[in-house]
Structures are given as C-alpha cells and as structure tokens.
Amino acid sequence: MLTLAFDTATAVATSALVDTGSNGHFEVLGERVSRAQTLLEDVDALLRQAGAHPSDLDRLAVGLGPGSFTGVRIGLAAARGLALSLDLPGSGVSTLAALAAGAPEALPVVDAKRREVFALLGGEPRVLTPLELPLDRGTVCVGDGAKRYRQLLEERGAIVPLDDDERHLPRARFHAALAGESGPVDELEPLYLRMPDADRSLG
Predict the structure, then answer these.
(1) What is the pLDDT of residue 20?
(2) Contact assessment for residue 68 and residue 11, using Cβ atoms and an 8 Å cutoff
(3) Residue 124's beta-bridge partner residues?
(4) 2-94+171-194: which CATH number, 3.30.505.10, 3.30.420.40, 3.10.50.40, 3.40.640.10?
(5) What tens digit of pLDDT does each residue of 109-151 get?
(6) CA–CA dist 178, 101 (Å, integer)
(7) 179 to each of 48, 79, 98, 137, 152, how far by Cα in Å?
(8) What is the C-alpha to C-alpha distance for residues 203 and 163, in angstroms, rounded to an integer?
C-alpha cells in the first residue's frame, strides 16, 4: 500500500512517501522537509523520486494539528484536493502524536503562539502556558515549542535537544505508521484546541 503522508501544522512542513504492507512491511521511499507553501511541489518530487505516478497512491495520512491555524488549513485543503482528484481515502494523525512517535520518551511541545504551547499529556492534546507544563527534572521536551521556550524549560529542569535535532520534527513517516483506518478525507476534523483569533475578535 502506497501512502502519501504530510504535516503542515508547524513552521516546518514534512512529507513522506511510504510503502506499507499487511505483513508489517514498512519502507520509506522518500522524505522532504520544507514549508507548507511548497507542499504540492514536495509531493510531486517524492513521486518522481520513487518512480511513481499519482494514480499509484492508495491513501493519504494527514497531520491534523494542533499548530498554526493557517498551516493546518493548508494541509487539510491539499489533502481534500488530492483526495478528490485521485479518489483517495485518508486518515488524520495528531501532530503531537507524530512528535511523540519520533521521541517515545519525550514530551512533545508545539508552539501555540500567544505565549502558550500545545502538549500531549496523558495521551490527550492540551493547550497551556510553558509554566503550566508538568515537568520532572530531566524530562526531555521536543518540538518547536520546546525550542522557543528552551530557556524557561531548562530553568525548570527539562532537557531540550539542540535546535537541529531530528526529534523536533513531526516526521511524516510517523503519520503513515500511526494512520488508522482510512475514510473520506473531507470528514477529517482539524485539532485546533482553541478558536482562531478572528473568531475571538467577533465574540
């Protein structure tokens, strides 16, 4: 089964083309790291690199956030366009869950702006301030939120890997690995966790 996976919820977009089989076979055919705005170019490059055609794809695995409202919307819009044009089913995967899969012993922390972060606590996504994060001394924190609030987190006893550490990226290969049963892509719901600024101003 050929899976196209991508996540545009954070400042760095990731994409991957993965071959998965019912016997546990899992092969990453290609990966790219760029920006949400170049996602479709990345998809084209991944397919060319693997010698595959869009019609060879079997399903999509899409990052649902939480993260940037604009980034999440770009990813879902791209997924819906691809699903419609290629008649593909898809699965949604939490950006935080993908980060956790890439760093199993770490606490995934995504920058939520407004001096807040998104974090995965007890398996549930939450929005809170960096000071509200439940940290034990030696807790490893990964993600762009961990990088942004490095000084504060390290002062509280956490460990934040170097900025270029692989564990800070929600790698799309993990979206493919975590993807559950596929269904209609237009039914996938984003994980915003809070309303956009524009909606707040109207309230």
Answers:
(1) 85
(2) yes
(3) 121
(4) 3.30.420.40
(5) 999 999 999 999 998 999 999 999 999 999 999 999 999 999 9
(6) 8
(7) 24, 14, 10, 32, 34
(8) 38
Integer Cα distance of 135 and 97 in angstroms: 18
- DSSP annotation of 52: -
Give yes or no for a cis peptide into 66 (omega within 30° of 0): yes
Q: What superfamily in CATH does domain 96-166 come from?
A: ATPase, nucleotide binding domain (3.30.420.40)
Token reading at 181: 């049963």
- What percent of the residues of the chain are helix, what percent strand, and what percent coil, each to the nearest 5? 40, 25, 35
Residues of the chain with CATH 3.30.420.40: 2-94+171-194, 96-166
